Amino acid sequence: MADRRDLESRAVRREGSNPSFPMEIIKEVLKLKFKTKEMNDHQLEITVEIEPKKFEEFKRRAARKISSQTKIAGFRSGKAPYDVVKRLYGDDAIIEEAIELSIHDVYPKVIQESELKPFGPGSLDEVLKKDPPKFRFIVPLEPIVDLKNYLDIRHSYDLPEISNDDINKVIDNLQLNYSTAKEKSEKSVIGDLVAVKMDAVLIEPDEGQEAEILKASPHQVVIGKDDEDTSYPFPHFSKKLTGREKGSEFEFTHKYSKNSGFEKLQNKTANFKVLIDNVKELEKPELNDDFSKMVGFESMEKLKNSIQDQLKTSGKEEFDNKYFDEVLEKIIQGAEIKYPPQMLDNEITDVLRNFEVELAGRNMDLPTYLKLNKREKEEFVEKEIEPAAKKRLEQALVIENISKLENIELDQAELQEEYSRSIIQLQADPNFNKLRKEFTIKKLSDVTAMQSATRLMNRRTLEKIKAIANDEIVKETIEEEKPALPTPEEEKPTESKSKEAKTPELKENSNKNLIHKD
């Protein structure tokens, strides 16, 4: 018997959201009785009963199907009488086949008559009775998004400026990359390159948690250059290395903060044993035009200008990611968003697949990653992948609904430009030839066009969200509705004049990480 757990929904899709169902509704259509019942997870339970007379028709269809798939002496394929098939194969075989036929006939009719708009294929939950049959289907519903007061959300867009300190920090790192290291016997000072081997164990590990963190782990650091929050093995570790000589050993404890990037070490105290392998003095090149030419620029001025441009681009992207994350989170918190579990499952699958692709780019697979991080896949998916998928799904639903509410439209010329840019990037991809073998040129073109449209629509919608959050939309409305003050001449009983409110031009803002998916 065919698998009934994955029914193909052939329901007629209609515009508008799902109808509001009371807890139980009973209808009778097309000789079917069915009742619907809302579930807590944005799915609908539909119980369907088929009248005996109607089921007799399915049983006779079932008998014809059985006779067409087997050889019955004296009869052509599919032409054996019902009683003959029943005698040869029995009631149970006919009933089972009739149930199978009725499921695929009844389900789409019920969906159509109940005016549902399913999110995807429903599933047969249980056959409650066989002759005449009674089925229970579970149908995932289309998501419902009520954004409520999204027009009242305010979040100022204050893009930080690039300072000279920011530029000098990049130049300083370039200097380090082009420095020469000379081993020294004196004690280490700020700016020296120190190589160490480390052992580390947790003083009070959790139950089941391994105490050993590091075992003879090699590491090198420039003293004073590990002040970032993500520095390894913790921020400002290099301060512990100041005033040390080659071959010296020392021991200390460190408590990780509650916000440490090392999740399993948060609020934990570890004991470190450190061996100084060597200490090297770094000789930095002078910062002049010779240095700029060394790194590919004609002059220091052009080098600084290039760094400034790169910092502006990367800084804006980083700021935009954080900004839109915060704005969308405010909207989500004030909204009512409902979706079926299958929708989140699909998103989890996609996020996990993307993560595996990212790992493959680092010559690693998921089992190896989990083993190195001492994690089980189920726990990793639950704690890492699922929250990311939920956030991405809800952000995408918000963006999609705002684009509809705000009537966001695409400019064809801009869409063509986006498509052309995407095609060029696709052709430059190292896997392009592999893709050409798997898909036709038309298929690749269609997918690229769809992805381009999605990115552009998301980008335009995010710009609208930014305008709303910065009070620009409200100001425009006020200016449009506010009558112009009359001049002394206009106070006369003549035809009045009004000023046209000008809509501020929105600057394009590309936000790659917030786009739901291509």
Account of the 3D structure:
The structure is a single chain. A five-stranded antiparallel β-sheet has the order 1-2-3-5-4. The chain has twelve helices and twelve strands. The protein folds into three domains: 25-141, 2-Layer Sandwich (Alpha-Beta Plaits), CATH 3.30.70.1050; 180-283, Chitinase A, domain 3 (Roll), CATH 3.10.50; 319-468, Trigger factor, domain 2 (Orthogonal Bundle). Strand 2 (32-38) and strand 3 (43-50) form a beta hairpin. The chain is an alpha+beta fold. The chain starts with 24 loop residues before the first strand and ends in a 37-residue tail after the last helix. It has helices at 52-69, 82-113, 164-177, 289-294, 300-334, 341-361, 366-372, 377-405, 412-428, 432-438, 441-469, 472-481; strands spanning 25-29, 32-38, 43-50, 123-130, 133-140, 144-146, 180-183, 193-202, 212-222, 249-255, 269-283, 336-338. Helix 1 (52-69) crosses helix 2 (82-113), helix 8 (377-405) crosses helix 11 (441-469) and helix 9 packs across helix 11. The model is unreliable at 1-30 and 475-518 (pLDDT under 50).
